[in-house]
Amino acid sequence: MNEQELQRLVEHISHTVFRKPFRHCATFNRRLRTTGGRYHLNSHNLDFNPLVLEVHGPEELEKVVKHELCHYHLHLEGKGYRHIDADFRTLLKESGGSRFVKNLHQTGTIAPPKWLYSCSACGQLYPRKRRIDLKKYVCGKCKGKLKLKI
User: Fold this and answer.
1) Residues classed as catalytic
2) What are phi and psi of 41, to 5 degrees?
3) Is there a contact between 146 and 134 (Cβ–Cβ < 8 Å)?
4) How far apart are the C-alpha atoms of 22 and 12, rounded to whole Å?
5) Strand 26-28 versus strand 46-48 pairing type
């Protein structure tokens, strides 16, 4: 999908779902990492993460578009456009937009823990990515002494 198709999609969703025109720009922004989209308060433009379309498909992108259009229309009407506002939550539920974007990162990319500690008293395991000071920390379950397993 190119940016012209994205613009047409946003205009179509705005017209059919919200029954209001979208008169600003919608673009893809590869610099977005953890969010599906972003609404700019000053320019009223919308940015969308292209990974949403690549990883989860057009259905998830449509939900993100609805979410950002909720911000857009409520802000222009002078109503509560933030996530905590009741106006936003109501309109989001009515439009069928997603509250959160699905995970955009590949599964299994998290590094496994390098260090494994165990409690000498109760046997509780503590996998850690970083080394810890055994003189400083004790077991959170029984306050027993920790020892390095790996």
Assistant:
1) 68
2) -65, -35
3) yes
4) 9
5) parallel
Q: What does the pLDDT look like over 49-95, one tens digit per residue?
A: 999 999 999 999 999 999 999 999 999 999 999 999 999 999 999 99
User: Can you read off the two tokens belonging to residue 42?
Assistant: 């000053």
**Coil, helix or strand at residue 9:** helix
Rg, C-alpha atoms of the chain: 23
Lowest-pLDDT range of 9-13, 104-108, 110-114: 104-108
| Helix (H) or strand (E) run with residue 37 in it | strand 37-39
Fill in the amino acid letter for 81.
Answer: Y
Contacts for 6-12 with beta carbons within 8 Å, 24 or more apart? 6/48, 9/61, 9/62, 9/65, 10/46, 10/65, 10/69
